[in-house]
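Response to reviewer comment R2.3. The reviewers asked that we include at least one raw input/output pair. We reproduce the pair for Pimeloyl-ACP methyl ester carboxylesterase here without editing.
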Amino acid sequence: MVSIKRPLASGVAAGLAIGVLAVTAPASAATTGKPTIVLEHGAFADASSWNGVIEELRKDGYPVVAAANPLRGPAEDAAALRSVLDHIQGPKILVGHSYGGSVISTAGANDPQVKALVYVAAFLPAPGETALELTNKYPGSTLPDALDPTPFTLPGGRTGTDLYIKADKFRHQFAADVPAGTAALMAAAQRPIAQSALEEKAEVAAWQDKPSWDVITTQDLNIPADVQRFMAKRARAHVTEVRASHSVAVSHPKTVAGVIENAARATR
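Raw output as returned:
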């Protein structure tokens, strides 16, 4: 088992099951004239973490798909997301939360239908970088002390370690500005990420040749704000800073949806 160094990588969510589409909108880009917004959750969450954002986007007429992220590793998870993207016709905006940023950076590369990338308290790795390496770049993450590592074995003998956030530490670590009852539900429904996913090197970076937007969370205990600022500056992203926890899509859905819509309008 690879030891977890302090401060550890991101806050994001995963699981062993691979879903395809968690949420779909009845409209399509072909009927609305607007790009489809594809949302990729991160570790320690699931697609329902986008519910508030989805409501705002659909209210404004955007077709939306929230994909289920396997949380096994950037390459494997990007392949799962690519299967979703290939099923959607027309222009698309990819949105990634936390570790989901690593996934959209891979899945969105070399796809002319992906018009923009929106990162939400997320990783923007360059080729050769890992989520763990980026988190360690500046101090501030308190995630290591909140983690509950759990060994797993898959059919075929594949083994590894899944990372959960301890239930009694979840709200403080991941969702400090979310109501206590909501945070408790999030903790119970969290999906784990494979520890190896945080140590896997990125192979491509779609942000290098596609426009990007970035929601930076200044009260983040998973990915320190200084790390987020470093990645956003390097990517020349359009930045919106929010005084929020890592779960900004839950606590500030209108703000996040507004940034996504700005990206959609700018690339039409």
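The longest helix spans residues 253-266. The longest strand covers residues 114-120. Further pairs are available on request from the corresponding author.
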